[in-house]
Amino acid sequence: MRVLVPEVLRTERRFARLFVGQSLSVLGDRVSFVALPFAVLSISDSAADVGLVATAGLLPLLVFTLVGGVWADRLPRQRIMLASDLVRCAVQAAIAVLLLTGTARVGLLALLAAVFGVADAFFLPASTGLLLLLVPADRLREANALRGFVQSASLVVGPALASVLIALAGPGGALALDAVSFAASAAVLARLGAVGAVGAGGGGVGGAVGGVAGAAAGGRQGFLAELRVGWQHVRGRTWVWSGMLAIAVYHVVVLPSVFVIGPLLAKREWGGASAWAVVVVAFGVGAIVGDVCAYRLKPARPMAVAAVAMAVASCQAVVIGSGAPVWVIALLEGVTGVGVSLFFVLWETSLQVHIPEQVLSRVSSYDHLISVGLMPLGLLLAGPLAEGLGVRLALFGMTAIAVPVSLALLLLPAIRRLPASPSAEAEPAAGSVAEPVGARSGTAPEAAV
């Protein structure tokens, strides 16, 4: 039975404990994703109110994600994650109590969702940076693939579990389970023990190979100065800013086809929610396959493979609007799911391997800001575009924009040549980012392309 357990879980015990806690939390989040809209609808039966509560949860990410990135590079990351889990546990428990006692109001749910969003904004950059301190560099891809596997599997299991809980205990009961999942995650983080101090190096390449970015070497800088250092690491690496641009296009242009136009088309032409559920589950199964591939594959040029995977992922819109039978659409959406998982595992691993540990959370905060922060813009525009241009023309246009952007990444030498580990990199040429004295990183950005 032991051989069935991935080696990274057997050899990296602290990561294994964190993995279990975060897996429970992710499952709870998937349940909440389904339960919260039904919670709002149980009060007001208004789609506008559902949008209000969802927006209230997303807006804090725009304001606080960069702050969370700076803090996560200053303070012990597991403590930030622990505090975030405790806050989110309290929020979900409060919402559950309000719903179960019949005292919930839309305005109060929106306020609590905003508090949840603030905690989320601090958790995301810290979690990316913490993994680097728990797992050796040569195991990061496996660890990220396992985390992705849980995310993908929860896409299949979470909605099914949520539907059962809502039927048995209502939305309040389902959200109570999410609160318990955050409590479990917090308990794991509390027992994790001291993790390598930020700025002192860690398990990954960024901490192992070199100096201190920002605060550790020449004394802590001010908030804006530390944020600027993080931006320099984004701007000075062509593969980073171009990858973030492709991610932004995916979130703003492609994902609205899934969240807004897809359900609309399913209702009008496919026979309703059950047909859409088949497509969503197929995508989740494909995503699981992608995570397994990411776990087993060891590409020498990971970002080149990631660019192709993103191009495949960006075909979701044209697949949904193809007019094919539902089973064909589901099959093709499964293929795009493979691309989505493969891209994000390789992307996150590349950041963790090539970005110095001391600034990783700041760079990650820009990543989360661009991806999650810009998504509401696409969701807002998708409906009017579909009504104005027609559903299928809008979907075809989404693909016509997104796929070329992904393939354009392959035109950049920085993407094509980025190795799996910094040891394979050539010495950086002139044009790499200039950092403050005392803020040299162990892995310098590549020359400007």
From TrEMBL:
<feature type="region of interest" description="Disordered">
    <location>
        <begin position="427"/>
        <end position="449"/>
    </location>
</feature>
<feature type="transmembrane region" description="Helical">
    <location>
        <begin position="238"/>
        <end position="261"/>
    </location>
</feature>
<protein>
    <submittedName>
        <fullName>Putative major facilitator superfamily transporter</fullName>
    </submittedName>
</protein>
<feature type="transmembrane region" description="Helical">
    <location>
        <begin position="273"/>
        <end position="295"/>
    </location>
</feature>
<feature type="compositionally biased region" description="Low complexity">
    <location>
        <begin position="427"/>
        <end position="437"/>
    </location>
</feature>
<feature type="transmembrane region" description="Helical">
    <location>
        <begin position="50"/>
        <end position="72"/>
    </location>
</feature>
<feature type="transmembrane region" description="Helical">
    <location>
        <begin position="302"/>
        <end position="320"/>
    </location>
</feature>
<dbReference type="GO" id="GO:0005886">
    <property type="term" value="C:plasma membrane"/>
</dbReference>
<dbReference type="InterPro" id="IPR036259">
    <property type="entry name" value="MFS_trans_sf"/>
</dbReference>
<keyword id="KW-1133">Transmembrane helix</keyword>
<keyword id="KW-0812">Transmembrane</keyword>
<feature type="transmembrane region" description="Helical">
    <location>
        <begin position="121"/>
        <end position="137"/>
    </location>
</feature>
<feature type="transmembrane region" description="Helical">
    <location>
        <begin position="368"/>
        <end position="386"/>
    </location>
</feature>
<feature type="transmembrane region" description="Helical">
    <location>
        <begin position="93"/>
        <end position="115"/>
    </location>
</feature>
<keyword id="KW-0472">Membrane</keyword>
<feature type="transmembrane region" description="Helical">
    <location>
        <begin position="149"/>
        <end position="169"/>
    </location>
</feature>
<dbReference type="Pfam" id="PF07690">
    <property type="entry name" value="MFS_1"/>
</dbReference>
<feature type="transmembrane region" description="Helical">
    <location>
        <begin position="20"/>
        <end position="44"/>
    </location>
</feature>
<feature type="transmembrane region" description="Helical">
    <location>
        <begin position="326"/>
        <end position="347"/>
    </location>
</feature>
<keyword id="KW-1003">Cell membrane</keyword>
<dbReference type="InterPro" id="IPR011701">
    <property type="entry name" value="MFS"/>
</dbReference>
<dbReference type="GO" id="GO:0022857">
    <property type="term" value="F:transmembrane transporter activity"/>
</dbReference>
<feature type="transmembrane region" description="Helical">
    <location>
        <begin position="189"/>
        <end position="217"/>
    </location>
</feature>
<feature type="transmembrane region" description="Helical">
    <location>
        <begin position="392"/>
        <end position="412"/>
    </location>
</feature>
